[in-house]
Design brief:
The chain has 2 domains: 220 residues, Rossmann fold (3-Layer(aba) Sandwich), CATH 3.40.50; 145 residues, P-loop containing nucleotide triphosphate hydrolases (Rossmann fold), CATH 3.40.50.300. By secondary structure, it is of the alpha/beta class. The protein has 17 helices and 13 strands. The chain binds adenosine monophosphate. The site of adenosine monophosphate (AMP) has 15 residues, from helix 5. The site of adenosine monophosphate has 15 residues, from helix 5.
Length: 425
């Protein structure tokens, strides 16, 4: 059983706060400085995969990331991997696109490989897509390890999962609801779990998974390592961290609300009734290789897809009403490049791992600034550049202003004659 290493001497004495509050307070106070790699005596990254070796990872893992084409760890990887390898609890504040998945899958494979055969790691994710993405990372990096990884999510038949779980697995990547079904049927034993990861914790709570998370974690040994990743840190996530993490080290990438800096943002003022026409016009006039369009609602997504079809543009919708098979088929077609336009709602987009997205288009302005950041996190991933365009109807001007306030910068307006409703926003 992995035991946590002794707490480091960075803690501050609790004052008026309770012990529990102080833990997170202590962690929060470390936010800006989150253990730079140099302070661990590691050499600075040198620009090839050997920088991964310098983080302490097994040679097989270094080869795997090298084969994946990575030449240097991303900042969250540089910070989090050595801590994870040492068994520390880590709270990673990082949005999708920062390389956070590898930041926890690599050290988990390192720690589990060649160990005893039983379920030793559990990764909880909010969506099926993210579940599959995380499972894919384990497979991609961990082929050599012989670790058995199984994705467990709803919307697909139960029996194959049951069979696989009963045969025994090393790592489970699961959405909370389906995992509880399996726990109730005693298909899975988590009492000897060593590592728990709560991935995209903010989104899991947004989706109402708090009771399920509590239920699952209550059955897991307290002598575990817990890693929590979240793009944002609202009080609910802080409370979750306070409850389940022990003296976590907080690792933060960029400012909490920072959008990927490789993304060029632009706002197009346009009346709601002209949005589809503007979309068709942009798709035909720009070199839009792979475009992710976001709508607020499922019906909106279907409507946009129908309108694009009428205009002769291949597109497909991705939302909660689609079956898993339909989602997989849509993703595959998009990945292969057969379909250039994927129209998604916010929930559906969270777990999408599609590299090389050239454009993100906010057909509707997202109601939450955080959603804007998540959405545009789909392009410009891991230092590729991309464009993020937002269509702004007159009744959405205030929402754009809020997003600009959170971003801390204005977004460029692009006025297209014939579409602009005549305001600079
Ligand atoms: P994530 O933030 O985990 O969703 O990862 C975003 C994308 O970055 C994924 O497609 C990864 O394959 C890719 N990625 C992860 N780590 C690196 C790295 N060190 N260098 C280049 N790409 C990476």
């Amino acid at each position: 059983m992995i035991k946590r290493s002794a707490p480091r001497g960075k803690g501050r004495a609790p004052s008026r706060k309770t012990q529990d509050e102080a833990k997170v307070h202590e962690a929060a106070a470390e936010l800006p400085m989150a253990v730079p790699a140099e302070s661990e005596g590691l050499p600075a990254p040198v620009g090839d995969a050997s920088a991964f070796a310098a983080l302490g990872l097994l040679p097989e893992l270094v080869s795997a990331v090298s084969a994946a084409g990575y030449t240097a760890p991303t900042p969250i990887q540089t910070e989090a991997i050595p801590l994870c390898l040492r068994g520390r609890d880590v709270m990673g504040l990082a949005q999708t696109g920062t390389g956070k998945t590898a930041a926890f899958t690599l050290p988990i494979i390192h720690r589990l490989h060649a160990g005893p055969r039983r379920t030793r790691a559990l990764i909880l994710t909010p969506t099926r897509e993210l579940c599959q993405q995380v499972e894919g990372s384990f497979r991609k990096y961990g082929q050599f390890s012989g670790l058995d990884v199984i994705p467990v999510f709803g919307g697909v038949s139960y029996e194959p999962q049951e069979q696989a779980l009963r045969n025994g697995v090393d790592v489970i990547v699961a959405t909370p609801g389906r995992l509880i079904d399996h726990m109730e049927k005693r298909n899975v034993a988590l009492d000897e779990l060593e590592i728990l990861v709560l991935d995209e914790a903010d989104r899991m709570l947004d989706m109402g998974f708090a009771p399920q998370i509590n239920r699952i974690v209550s059955g897991i040994s307290p002598y575990r390592q817990t890693l929590l990743f979240s793009a944002t840190m609202p009080p609910e996530v802080e409370a979750l961290a306070r409850k389940y993490l022990r003296r976590p080290i907080v690792v933060q990438v960029g400012r909490r609300s920072q959008a990927a800096h490789t993304v060029r943002h632009a706002v197009y003022p346009v009346p709601g009734s002209r949005k589809t026409a503007l979309l068709v016009s942009l798709l035909s006039s720009h070199a839009m290789e792979s475009t992710l369009v976001f709508t607020r609602t499922k019906h909106g997504a279907d409507r946009v897809v129908r309108a694009l079809h009428e205009a002769g543009v291949e597109a497909t919708a991705m939302h909660a009403d689609k079956t898993q098979a339909q989602r997989n088929a849509a993703l595959e077609a998009f990945r292969r490049g057969d379909i250039k336009v994927l129209v998604a709602t916010d929930i559906a987009q969270r777990g999408l791992d599609i590299s090389g997205i050239s454009h993100v288009i906010n057909y509707d302005v997202p109601g939450q600034a955080e959603d804007y950041i998540h959405r545009i996190g789909r392009t410009g991933r891991a230092a590729q550049s991309g464009d993020a365009f937002t269509f702004m109807a007159p009744d959405e001007i205030a929402m754009v202003r809020t997003i600009e306030r959170v971003l801390g910068q204005p977004i460029e307006r692009i006025s297209i004659p014939g579409f602009d409703f005549g305001t600079s926003g």
